[in-house]
Write a structure and sequence with these properties.
The complex is a heterodimer of chains A (132) and B (261). Chain A has 4 helices and no strands. Chain A is mainly alpha-helical and 132 residues long. Chain A has 2 domains: 48 residues; 57 residues. Chain B has a single domain, classed as Spore Coat Polysaccharide Biosynthesis Protein SpsA, Chain A (Alpha-Beta Complex), CATH 3.90.550.10. Chain B contains 9 helices and 7 strands. Chain B is globular, with a radius of gyration of 17 Å. Classes of the chains: A mainly alpha (132), B alpha/beta (261). At the A-B interface, helix 4 of A face strand 3 and helix 3 of B.
Chain lengths: 132, 261
């Protein structure tokens, strides 16, 4: 086994173990775990069978195979960041909607409380219109 | 649709307020004095001070947001309240006192032939409110583009002084952007896209009772850049062609449950 193979394998295994632990402790939702799992598996494949990478580089015409690896890796990271930005935006929008609803509910609640207080005060006395 | 100018039109003034303790009570008092019969909803946008208490003491309803959402968030909450409680008209008036409530009846009168009426500066020469440099270029660019879209002359699309009828309230209750310039420019684009008509009524605005607008050249230039981006986005964004959520929202009574955004 060459040093690079060991390095690649170690990296992939570490990702797998961390993934498993995070999933087990409910720290990671499986929709995010899938992509990381795919990355770890691809890392193992490339580490064990470097021929796959060489063949692929040859196929698309990249002279230095490691450059193809870097290219794909950066592309993947870009995609992941974009996905996170998207998720974040969605969460912000939901959070905003919730905040607005909380504000309105609080107003509703305070209004009905005031009304019931008025109704209680009116009890026993001659009944008047409850409005201000 | 209820006619906005009928005598029984229920008018809700929505006032977004963020740390406006120095001016909020005075502004409320002035509105109630000049326009008796309107309801005022102050949307306290996560203030650190006692804006909410002062507004409440001054006779307004107060909706307190748990944290700062910006004018767009505050206004959407206000429009939702107006929709769920059956108001015929919702009017936005800023808490800082720059909008003169004496113009309110004029705005309401224009709702006869439009769904949104913007209280606009620069509508005629000699307006005391002067703006120069990049900030002015931005305002001209925005005004020209929106005018073309609205097929009527709009001179001040960033004005926060505006009235909306039920049709526009229904749109804004579902779609009112919280992003930069979204509460002014983009909301008008949305209204136009969903088939509402927009027009303006000339008003004179006062120097802010408290606080100051950004005036340094750098900030004005940044404003121009952001305005271009916001306008471009607003124009290319997809918005619902019609009031898709309207029936669900309208079917809900005064104490209704959440409408969908």
């Amino acid at each position: 086994m060459s040093a690079t193979t060991i390095l690649g394998l170690t990296g992939a295994v570490v990702i797998m173990v961390v993934l498993f632990e995070m999933l087990r402790r409910h720290r990671l939702r499986e929709k995010y775990a899938v992509i990381w799992f795919v990355i770890a598996v691809s890392a193992i494949v490339v580490a064990v069978v470097p021929g796959v990478l060489f063949g692929l580089a040859d196929l698309v015409g990249v002279k230095v195979p490691s450059n193809l690896l870097f290219f794909l890796a950066s592309l993947l990271l870009l995609g992941l960041t974009l996905q996170h930005s998207h998720e974040l935006g969605r969460l912000e929008e939901r959070c905003r909607t919730l905040a607005e609803e909380v504000g309105l509910l609080r107003l509703d609640f305070e209004q009905s409380q005031t009304e019931s207080q008025k109704a209680q005060q009116a009890d026993g006395e001659p009944v008047e219109d409850g409005s201000e | 649709m209820p006619h906005p100018s009928r005598l029984t039109a229920r008018v809700l003034v929505v006032m977004p307020a963020w740390n406006e303790r120095d001016s909020v009570a005075e502004t409320i008092a002035e509105i109630l004095e000049t326009n008796p019969g309107v309801d005022i909803l102050v949307v306290d946008d996560g203030s650190d001070d006692d804006t909410a208490a002062r507004a409440s003491a001054a006779g307004a309803l107060v909706c307190q947001l748990p944290f700062n959402l910006g004018v767009g968030g505050a206004m959407r909450a206000g429009y939702r309240y107006a929709l769920r409680n059956g108001y015929d008209v919702a009017v936005q008036i800023d808490a800082d006192g720059q909008h003169d409530p004496r113009y309110l009846p004029k705005l309401l009168a224009r709702l006869v032939d439009a769904d949104v009426v913007v209280g606009a500066r620069f509508a005629h020469k000699g307006d005391p409110y002067q703006v120069r440099g990049p900030r002015r270029w931005a305002m001209v660019l925005l005004a020209r583009t929106l005018s073309r879209l609205a097929k009527t002359r709009l001179t001040d699309v960033t004005s926060g002084f505006r009235a909306a009828n039920t049709r526009a309230i229904t749109v804004f209750a579902a779609h009112y952007p919280a992003e930069y310039l979204g509460d002014t420019v983009e909301s008008l684009v949305i209204a136009l896209r969903t088939g509402c008509t927009v027009t303006q009524e000339p008003v004179e605005m006062r120097v802010r009772a408290a606080g100051q607008a950004s005036q340094t050249p750098v900030r004005a230039a940044v404003y121009l850049g952001r305005a271009v981006v916001a306008l471009g986005l607003a124009l290319v964004r997809r918005w619902p062609a019609a009031l898709e959520h309207a029936p669900a929202d309208l079917g809900i009574g005064p104490a209704g449950k959440a409408g969908r955004a």
